[in-house]
């Protein structure tokens, strides 16, 4: 199982701050594709992704038990 943490507007789009995904051995890219298909996200293409608190690239592998965070771009001044 993979725990997915959501931040900012992503929480609002899905209505929760985290998801439990019963899949493993996915790349970041394939997890994004799965989430966009299964949940009402507008887009996950420009979010930062971290696996176990370390920033990840789209071809990084996600293992069973990992915690994946989706962090949207932040603007401010």
From TrEMBL:
Key words of the record: Nucleotide-binding
Gene3D superfamilies (alphabetical): 3.10.20.30
Signal peptide span: none
Coiled coil: none
Keyword Lipoprotein: no
Domain of life: Bacteria
Family: Belongs to the MoaD family.
Protein name: Molybdopterin synthase sulfur carrier subunit
Species name: Metabacillus herbersteinensis
Protein encoded by which gene: moaD
């Amino acid at each position: 199982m993979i725990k997915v943490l959501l931040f900012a507007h992503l929480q609002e789009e899905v209505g929760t701050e985290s998801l439990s995904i019963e899949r493993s051995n996915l790349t970041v890219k394939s997890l994004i594709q799965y989430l966009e298909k299964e949940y009402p996200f507008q887009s996950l293409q420009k979010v930062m992704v971290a696996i176990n608190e370390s920033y990840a690239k789209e071809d990084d592998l996600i293992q069973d038990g990992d915690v994946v965070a989706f962090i949207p771009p932040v603007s401010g001044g």
